[in-house]
Amino acid sequence: MRKILSKVICLLVCLVGLSFLFGLADDIKYFTNATGIPNFLPDPPYVNGSILVQANTNPDGSVNSLSDIHAAIGATIKRDYGTIGISGLSLVTLPDTISVPDAVRYYSECPGVAYAEPDYYVSAHTTPDDPEFWRQWGLSNTGTPFKENTSPGISGADISALSGWNETTGTNGIIIAVLDTGADIGHPDLAGNIWSMSQSGLVLHGLNALEEIAVEPWDDDGHGTHCAGVIGMIGNNNLGGAGVAWNATIMPIKVLDYKGHGRLSDLAFGMAYATLYNASIISCSFGTPYSRTMEDIIRKSPALFVCSAGNYGGDLNMFPQYPACYNFSNVIAVAATDPQDELSWFSNFGNRTVHVGAPGTDIYSTIPSGYSYTSFFEDPTFAKENFTLTGNWTRIPGTMPGEPVSLQAVLSDYPDISTFVIEMNTSVDIPSEENKIPHLIWEVKGDFFGYQIIEYSNDIVNWTSLWDFDTEFHEDHWRQLFIPLNSVYTESGFRTRYTYILFKRDVTSDFSIRNIRIGYRGEAIKPEYQYMSGTSMAAPMVSGMAGLIKGKKPDLTAEGVKQVIMDTADPLPSLQDKTITGARVNLSAALKSLKKSDGIPLYPGWNHVSIPRRLNPGYDTAQIFAGVNSSGHSVLVYVNNTTGYRTLSMNDPVVPLQGYWIYSTNTITVPVRFTDQIIPFSREIPVGWSSIGGWMEKDLSAKETFHTLMNAWSYATGYDAVVQQYEEPIIRGGTGHQSDERPIRPYHGYWLYCSQNGTYQAGFG
Questions:
Q1: What is the b/e burial string over 105-115, where b = at least 16 CB atoms within 10 angstroms of the residue's CB?
Q2: Helices 223-232/535-552 angle, 10° precision
Q3: CA dist., res. 244 & res. 363, Å (int)
Q4: What's the mean per-residue pLDDT of the chain?
Q5: What residues contact residue 274 under an 8 Å CB cut-off, 6+ apart?
Q6: Which helix or strand (DSSP H or E) is residue 231 part of?
Q7: 81 to each of 52, 58, 91, 108, 586, how far by Cα in Å?
Q8: End-to-end Cα spacing for the chain
Q9: Is 129's pLDDT higher than 80?
Q10: What is the distance between the alpha carbons of residues 636 and 645, in angstroms, rounded to a whole number?
Q11: How far apart are CA 473 and CA 487, in angstroms?
Q12: How far apart are CA 68 and CA 105, in angstroms?
């Protein structure tokens, strides 16, 4: 990490753009293109000074060197995508003497270049607007109120999640990447479902593509955290709401900044990263112009890209935007529906371009939590030696013991625009800590509308904007906000200054601020939730569905998962001629469509299998495996630590709660017939390792499966027959990927370790 040596920071701080934490309002601020259709991108819609260049691939698989072509115009390579698996693609920095259009033209005409294109800006799709399940109408719409001061929905206008969860609630290790503004990776309702990887001795929970150093993908906007929560808020944990997939593996990839804007070059890097690290589903709640770079990455990826259709109420047949409009078998575009099963007023549509609808209006999900901090500067009294205040401020003492002083901005009667400044005029030393990002932190509440800008300078002469935008804010309790400062530090000290212009409207506007400080993020102390609206919310609804489908049937390709979603969607009059299917997605129907006749799936090689309940008499012996081509291998059962394995004869019974090892030369399903009689069954488990199976025909958490063993069990490890290797262990009381909330799957065998004898019983006896 960069060196930060005793920097003297004359820091002018205040309230910053509040909209970054509470979602992006496409109808508040956007840009229009030549057709007048808003595309939410700057004009021109690309980064000045750099372009993306793809070299041609030779017949032998090598790529052409473009070093002479770069050198001829004084261009240099800023990012080589070969490090992330895309050979020949580079982000090229241009000299000041050549414009982006001229550079694209130059490279496009050079031998050895496949294509060149601008580094387009990217923008999140949302039209924004909090933790009980009753608020989540998109999952279960009962026709009753789901939000204060809002009309109730129509019963059944949802994705039928309750019925779908009878089939499964987990993705079984299937990775869902969320390309967005990052995620609150410490949120108590998300943390257990966040992917992680050890890299060069560091443990990272995704990718921050905006940074040149390895740092966590923390969300400084809220949009990405909300999308991640729609996919995978932890279910059945007595906290907040539930995601479409209760037990998921979410890979946050930060490609958008605090305004929900980004660059194609970072987006491409994030897409390639997700593919490289085996994400099966990539959730894309953003839009950008057509890009050959993005097209190539998506076309070559085996993942399913779930893309929001956008929020300007337009027809994508006429005004396409991407990635939603790539006509590939691994792309599914999603429109938004409301609690009445109507197309949301803001949603784009297209009967040749948008595949399905999904709930996207007033969707309740996670936003960044309140955190403890290790502070390097903190003055809860706003003492004069530390702060200079400009504007009509009122100092409000705390009313409770230990409550800090707050500052309330008071509008003057005239003029209608008031300006407020808080300047921090003391020196602060910030230590350098590897992989930690310092933040400005504060708490705010109020009801206001205004423009704010925070600038920084190294010489007190030239000022650069750090944050600036218009925002509306409506909050009657204190909300913690922060700005990450990792990208503005240099070797010399710097200062910031803040200007806030408050606009007076028909009602009196006010805001209050307290606890301005600088520090490092600590532990989550207050999980936060909020409603948002947009196709950004609809797309992750489908991403969560796709994860459950893929987890239930891992051999499905991206095209297969997409087809299941489309084939099982519910036709709606409001979506006829608006989407390809004319239908809104249905989780229950999608999962039930995967069920064939009861059977034990086998894959080439060794399989560790079980049966979830008693078989019908006459069909309850190893004879059920007679049709398996085992290449001479016997069916094995593990007896105990002393005896080891025993070979099953064809007349030996096959019983529940027991694991069996069987070899198969091909993929096959062994049909089974279950008895209709309800007969309790149990098994005595000794100290040490046992080969066991689950007792449900659906996924059930290990905690629930081994309930009767209480504290006797310690570990459970499954075997993935598809890739012929053991899975990461489940640990009693574990967290993250080793959490005992992970499911025990039907028909799968598991190694179970017990530290003492116990009784393993089906049900909760």
A1: ebbeebeebbb
A2: 40
A3: 12
A4: 83
A5: 175, 177, 179, 251, 253, 282, 303
A6: helix 223-232
A7: 10, 17, 8, 19, 38
A8: 55
A9: no
A10: 6
A11: 26
A12: 17
Residue 301 pLDDT grade (very low, low, confident, very high; cuts 50, 70, 90)? very high
Q: Report which DSSP code applies to 405.
A: P
Bond preceding residue 95 cis, omega within 30 of 0: no
The secondary structure of residue 700, as a DSSP letter, is E
Rounded to whole angstroms, how far apart are CA atoms 499 and 16?
9
Instruction: Please give the angle made by the CA atoms of 51, 54 and 57, to the nearest 5 degrees.
Output: 170
Q: Do 55 and 64 form a contact (C-beta atoms < 8 A)?
A: yes
Q: What single DSSP character describes residue 133?
A: G
Tokens of 218: 């923390």
- Number of residues in the chain: 765
Residues 6+ apart with CB under 8 A from 213: 1, 2
3-state secondary structure of 150: coil
Read off the pLDDT of residues 31-83 as tens digits, 9 standing for 90 and up: 222 222 333 445 577 889 999 999 998 888 888 899 999 999 999 999 999 98
Number of DSSP helices (H) and strands (E) in the chain, helices first = 10, 42
Q: Which residues contact 418 (CB under 8 A, 6 or more apart)?
A: 391, 392, 409, 411, 412, 501, 502, 504
Query: Is omega for the bond preceding 252 within 30 degrees of 0, making it cis?
Result: no
Ranges assigned E (strand) in 43-182 = 46-55, 76-80, 89-93, 113-124, 170-180
E-assigned strand segments in 565-702 = 570-571, 583-584, 599-602, 605-609, 636-640, 644-647, 660-664, 668-671, 682-685, 688-693, 700-701
DSSP β-ladder status, 304-308 and 279-284: parallel
